[in-house]
Amino acid sequence: MNEITINVLNAVTKVLGETDSYLPLHEPEFSGNEWKYVKDCIDTGWVSSVGSYVDRFEHDLQDYTGANYAVATMNGTAALHLALILAGVKPGHEVIMPTLGFVATANTIAYCHAIPHFVDISEDTLGLDPVKLDEYLSEIAEFTNKGLTNKKTGNIIRAIICMHTFGHPVDLDPLMEICKRWNLMLVEDAAESLGSTYNGKHCGTFGHIAAISFNGNKTVTTGGGGALLTNDKRFAERAKHLSTTAKVTHPWLYIHDEVGFNYRMPNINAALGCAQIESLDKFIIEKRQLAGNYIKAFEKVDGVSVFTETEYAKSNYWLNTIILESPDVGMRDKILELLNSKNYMSRPVWSLLHALKPYQNMPYMDNLDIAERMEKTLINLPSSPKLMRIAA
Length: 392
Ligand SMILES: *Cc1c(COP(=O)(O)O)cnc(C)c1O
Prior knowledge:
2 domains, 4-stranded antiparallel sheet, alpha/beta, binds pyridoxal-5'-phosphate, 392 residues, 38% helix, 7-stranded mixed sheet, Aspartate Aminotransferase, domain 1, Aspartate Aminotransferase, domain 2
């Protein structure tokens, strides 16, 4: 076995200790009021799609993030789908997004019968590269009487979805400036970044609309769940309406004024969320300490670096990430094999979206160098907050 592989194992062992039980990338933790609030739902019969915990959870999210409005949904994908509808994404429109990302994001574009247009990322943030994006738009886009149009395909380019990869904020200021100049809606896929900030302001409060996920592997969980954040009252009201089968408020009549969805978060899930958010600050402190320990342990490991936040960002370090200096899939796989065999769950990054079967005929930037390099060199490591306590 080569030296880098052994050194990576030693560094991970230094941080996490040796373990007989398998350590997942991210495990949920219920050590606060979770049982009490969920029991309350069962005791009172309020388990389903309306109830006081839903309202409370939405308020908690507003308070925590500083967003004017939060609308809880059944998962993050549903929140993203609603966000694109609110952003005015229509069949045949193109939506720009990074090729390095989770498939759910591209899927929500497809649900709108729109076209994902894949672009490269920055190695500083692992999210959209504003400089490269701006140059690319100058090359491929022009304003016509239809709006911003892709010169090659003739399609309208309606929106950009940025994603804060593994909790690390993208460079939002230049991105927002680009959206303004090119007249594009900005949707933040903040699924992974609850508790991360950019220049002191929470991720998910920069774009026109943002989506968060509370899936079981995220920083806080509601079992399954999501939320849409926005500062625009009309967006919030329409999101609530669309997620509630577009039902018009009336004491008894079933009137639905458009095709809506059943995307609401059930009360029992929101109860879990209310308890989880009480622990969020503690989770983030512990996750950042764990990241600090990884950074220290890998300092002397040649050929590998830990991905760290930029100076304008405070990351929740949802998933800790190491990057091999040189692209070597064989070595990456050896490291993955060794770490997993020692009960440290580790994974490569998602397969690039522009190469996946459902999306391989979609438009993409010719130069996807950084995303392609990350696909070959990136490894995620166990990142649950409790690992800080176990190792200590
Ligand atoms: C988790 C995740 C989603 C989807 O959220 P769900 O709640 O699982 O539907 C979307 N985008 C990204 C980047 C994610 O990590």
